[in-house]
Amino acid sequence: MKYPCLVLDHDDTVVNSTATVHYPCFVKFLKQYFPHCTYTFEEYVIKNFSPGILPFFRDEVGMNEEMLQREYDFWDTYVQQHVPQAYAGMCEILWEQKNAGGLICVVSHSMEKNILRDYRENGLPQPDLIYGWDYPAHQRKPNPYPIEQILEKTGLRREELLVVDDLKPGYDMASACGVPFAAAGWAYDIPEIEDFMRRSCGLYFKTLAELKAHLA
């Protein structure tokens, strides 16, 4: 097995959630509370890429702490009613990893309860470890904490992990820990993001078939 542990992002890496859940939810929230603000899907994804969702909400949309909490509650309610679909081929990749004795860890900005539900509803193997939005801000990616914890709990070497993520926070986390990183490029076609990830990352996969071939 090339990588005994896959460390996976969730949204737009395992499940197609931004286009089908998070962006539509964001649009509904803006219409209700910030009707003067409009963002295309591409703009929304780029803002998630950099500077990240919280700086975007605070500094550009103009949400204060009270409104950030309201947005979170709005989003949480919406997410409970909408289950994103796993990308075609992801189920096969993850079951092959588990059946070979490998580990699957998730490091995401989604909540653990939603990650577990999405894995269950899509027939994916239950992750061995999850580090999601439930953790304090200083322990979420891009902070190295999730990777450090995975290394400590599994006893694996850094080169035995592969982080797979579609956005910069995952790359920053892996780089800070000296862990191999693969960019997931199958979620969308946004040149600004693809150009950065291709230049910066050791591995870039445009399709799940390419990832599967690399893991073989």
List the helices and strands and how they pair.
Elements: E1 5-8, H1 18-33, H2 41-49, H3 53-61, H4 65-80, H5 90-99, E2 103-107, H6 112-121, E3 129-131, H7 145-154, E4 161-165, H8 168-177, E5 181-184, H9 191-200, E6 203-205, H10 208-215
Helix pairs in contact: 1-4
Highlighted features:
10 helices, six-stranded parallel β-sheet, 11% strand
Describe the protein's architecture and organization.
- The chain is globular, with a radius of gyration of 17 Å.
- A 6-stranded parallel sheet has the order 3-2-1-4-5-6, sandwiched between helices.
- The protein is built from 10 helices and 6 strands.
- The protein is of the alpha/beta class and 216 residues long.
- Helix 1 packs across helix 4.
- 50% of the residues lie in helices and 11% in strands.
- Please state roughly what percent of the residues sit in beta strands, choosing from under 5%, 5-15%, 15-25%, 25-35%, 35-45% or over 45%: 5-15%
The sequence of SSEs as H and E is: EHHHHHEHEHEHEHEH
Strand order, biggest sheet?
3-2-1-4-5-6
Biggest sheet, in brief? 6 strands, parallel
Spans of at least 5 consecutive residues whose pLDDT stays below 50 are none
How many β-strand runs?
Answer: 6
Helix tally equals 10
Helical amount: 40-55%
The geometry reads as globular
Task: Give a concise summary.
This protein has 216 residues and is of the alpha/beta class. The chain contains ten helices and six strands; from the N terminus they run E-H-H-H-H-H-E-H-E-H-E-H-E-H-E-H. Helix 1 crosses helix 4 (65-80).
